[in-house]
Amino acid sequence: MSEQFSLEPMVEMYLFETGQLIDKLEQIIMNCESKSQLSDDIDEIFRIMHTIKGNSMMMMYDEIANLAHAIEDFFDFLKVSPDATTELNIIFDLLLETVDFFKLEIIKISNGDIADGTCDVLVLRIKQHLRALKGLDPGLEDTSKPMDGPNRFFIAAAHTKESTDIAVTENERGDHAKYFMTSIHFDKGCELENVRAFSIIHGLKEIVEEEFHFPPDIIENEASVHVIRLNGFKVYYKTTENESVLQLHFHSIAFVTSIETTEITEETYRQFSDANWAEKTEVKAIEQETSTRLVSKDRAPKKTVLQADTQTAKNFITVGLMKINQLMDLVGELVVSESMVTRNPELEKLQIDSFEKASRQHRFIIKEIQDVVMSMRMVPLDLTFQKMNRLLRDMTKKTNKMVTLKIQGAQTEVDKNVIEQISDPLMHIIRNAIDHGIESPEERKATNKPLEGTILLEAKQSGGSVYIIVKDDGRGIDRERVLEKASMADLLYKPREEYTDKEVFNLLFQPGFSTKEEVTEFSGRGVGMDVVMRNIEEVGGAVAVDSQFGIGSEFVIKIPLTLAIIEGMLVRVGNVIFSLPITSIQESMRIKSEQLIVDNASKEMVMIRDECIPVHRLNNRYSIEGAVSCIDDGVLVMIENDHGKMMLFVDEMIGEQQLVVKRIPKYIQKVDGISGCALLGDGKISLIIDPTGLS
Amino acid sequence: MKEEHESVTKGVLDTLKVMTFYVGDSEYGINITDVRDIVRIQDITYFPNQPQYIKGLINLRGKIVPTMDIGLKFNMPERAYDDRTCIVVIEKEETVLGVIVDRINEVKTFMINNISQSPKAEEGRVNDFLMGIGQQEGVHTLLLKTEKVISHE
User: Fold this and answer.
1) Which helix (H) or strand (E) holds A73?
2) Cross-strand bridge partners of residue A668
């Protein structure tokens, strides 16, 4: 039990737990709001607030604790009188404001900043509303009892009977029971203060009728040591015993620096013995006593959470993302080193059967490990999609539009590293859809559309990618307006009529497209679609938009299933080794130069089964010297991307290999068609081709 | 290596410690705090469609590092690489870059007030890159600005 706490792991735990609780709470609120019903979830909301409060108090995030406490009181009341109000909207609003405050403070803490937000106004509103529901006059005074009791207690030596407030209670024996508070300080550096405190209590229980002590959970909670060191150990007790007996007991404990005993009123004692005393009074009371910070923790709420969550707790374990990424890297290296061993050229010559068998098994097991580790990083899009509900709610309220969000395929999983990057772009797209896409109810009525607009948010997996689709039935994209805006922003490079619809829509993604006139509270602030596109491209994805004027728009985000390992086909062009994703390869062949067709623009193509497929020479495209130039001497690889089929002309095909994908270093300038690099077994570097980028 | 040098250079504010090397006939220096590693010249994997001074990628113990020939960047004629050619791996603002140099020299310490300003030539490319010229025992060292080295200007 050293002097210093290492708060770092504690803070992380706190952030993680509280973050989860906040998300859960928000979901519950959204759910209740859509049902316009609160009664089923009152208990759970109470429990969540209780836990957040307890955790925040322990971590000394007082504002968060206070706010949680206010809501907790509110729901404590609702537990008893669930039908106290039909105006649920006020409650939902207060709850969501609370959630927002929590989120903000959590962000600050996770950035290493101080959680300095204040919420007195919100707390006051909550309290006032509670008073209103109780039928009380919504006065501005605090509903919790002020604790000035402890202020009177620091009398230097032994207790005094001079206080006129002392009341005397009669018990069955006819003796007068009295109430005392004793504050004990231990010697500095004596260690194990909580254990010593425990022995005081243990002995005291034999002597007195009742006792309560603070901090309450001395043995289970290590933080209590710190509290005792700072403020002493306090015992409140009711007894008929002679004072000297008690003094004897207290003095019998070793390492005690000071003992201060004062007699207190029954009323004061009752306040402490009340079941809720720890929560209502301790923070305020101790703050009045001393200005030093206090670490206190209410053990009870943690227990309830444990009970409620033991089911899930048994089945899940929390692991830092960094560890998983490390594991991922190591597995990648394992894959490469396995290749180096089993594909050793000298070994291949020997052709040993037993070795072949063993290495096959080896490769199989490694593949299994790889699959499992990759699946560890996969996270369903569920949570991300749920966040959109909140966005929708806030925006529809503010814009007075009626919009409903339909979610499909939320169980689709995506690499955790990818999910972080697409959350913001997705929100931006949906924001745009609501702000600019969906029309006002009046406008929709005039065009015979259902008054309520629909946004469909769908996720599905296909090939090596995940597609996220945002489809709305709004007014669609006005081609002429886009061209007009692009023209004003100087983005047009050819006459307007020559633009295909697709090209017009792509203008939306150009930097500088959003002009000031379109700035609303939510969108058009210059954090435009170009940022959206960039974020998505950073994870190796792409975004495209399609639209029909008057009918609606559809945004399609395509992201790779995983960034980490792909199955590649190695091909050689000159002395450069390229990797083609296996999933994109259709077939490969050799042709004779006579079969090659050249058009009047010098574009080459070849006829395969009555289909005309363009031929791309990689050596030309990438200025590679020393590559094969005669068609007869090379290989054609047919690949397919989103735009169609094409033939890549390469020197030779080397073979399949598992590749650990690495990002192209920052310094290197982006090249169309190359999306990453990979280390090969022999230490060489291969460039990974992105078929879509070749078009 | 970084931490060690950082603490040394931080402790003595009026000196600059640089890693010196030769490109052609001139001696250059880069702030030692920006130097991560120095390795012998090794296989460089070509990366297409880059400026001529970017040679390609190297595999540095599992990490993929881009390399450039600083002589070519200074518009010097192409030089052949031999067994004394080295790659100085620098890092600044999250960009890692390997700089190909002819010969690696030694770490030199210069007093800040002894560093002369480089003459401002009209288009002299090299001068843009310099934060000054240091002199020690009759030898002039052209002190490079790391941020200029990693930029594409």
Assistant:
1) helix A62-80
2) none
Distances (CA, A) of A512 to A500, A509, A524, A528, B90: 21, 9, 10, 8, 35
pTM for this one?
A: 0.53
* Rounded (to 5) percent helix, strand, coil in chain B: 20, 50, 35
- HEC string of A327-376 equals HHHHHHHHHHHHHHHHCCHHHHHHCCHHHHHHHHHHHHHHHHHHHHHHHH
Calculate mean pLDDT across residues A449-458. Answer: 91
> How confident is the model over A475-487, as pLDDT tens digits?
888 888 888 888 8
Please give the pLDDT value at position A555. Answer: 93
Residues of A in contact with B57 (CB under 8 A): 665, 668, 677, 685
Quick count: other Cβ atoms within 10 Å of Cβ A612? 11
pLDDT for B84:
93
* B95 contacts in chain A (CB < 8 Å): 665-667
Of the candidates A536, A529, A565, A387, which has an alpha carbon nearest to the alpha carbon of residue A467?
A536
Residue partners of A597: CB distance under 8 A and separation at least 6: A604, A605, A606, A607, A612
Three-state helix/strand/coil letters over A122-141: HHHHHHHHHHHHHCCCCCCC
What is the C-alpha separation between A508 and A503, in angstroms, rounded?
9
pLDDT of res. A657: 79
C-alpha triplet A347, A348, A349: angle, nearest 5°: 90
* Highest mean pLDDT: which range of A136-150, A224-238, A341-355, A435-449: A435-449
**Residues A472, A437 contacting (CB under 8 angstroms):** yes
pLDDT given for residue A434 in this prediction: 87
Q: Tokens 């950073």 map to which residue? A: A538
Query: Alpha-carbon distance A507 to A485, whole Å?
Result: 9
CA-wise closest residue to A275 among A216, A205, A208, A204: A216
Please give the distance of CA B40 from its chain centroid, rounded to a whole number.
15
Which residues of chain B lie closer than 8 angstroms to A676, CB-CB?
A: none
Write down the pLDDT at residue A526: 45
Q: B104-118 burial string, b = 16+ CB within 10 Å, else e?
A: bbeebebeeeebeeb
- Cα–Cα distance between B101 and B22 in angstroms, integer? 6
B71 touches chain A (CB under 8 A): no
Model pLDDT for residues A613-631, shown as the tens digit of each residue? 999 999 999 999 888 888 8
Sign of CA dihedral A683, A685, A688, A689: negative
- What is the percent of chain B where pLDDT is above 90? 58
Instruction: Quote ipTM for the complex.
Output: 0.85
Q: Per the structure block, which two tokens stand in for A623? A: 């200025």
Residue A388 near residue A406, CB atoms below 8 Å:
no
Chain A contact probe: residue of B34, B39, B47 with most A CBs at under 10 A: B47
| CB half-sphere exposure, A364, CA atoms < 13 A | 6
What does the block give as tokens for A130?
Answer: 């509670």
Q: Is B65 on the interface with A (CB under 8 A)?
A: yes
Tokens 């009791």 label which residue? A149
**Which residues of chain A are within 8 Å of residue B46 when distances are taken between CB atoms?**
575-576, 624
A356-369 mean pLDDT: 88
Cis peptide before A215 (omega within 30 of 0): yes
Q: How far apart are CA A417 and CA A611, in angstroms?
A: 40
CA-wise closest residue to A691 among A603, A571, A581: A581
Q: What is the pLDDT of residues B15-59, one digit of tens each?
A: 889 999 999 999 999 999 999 999 999 999 999 999 999 999 998
A694 with A646: CB under 8 angstroms?
yes
Q: What digits encode the pLDDT tens for the residues A563-602?
A: 666 778 999 999 999 999 888 899 999 988 888 889 888 8
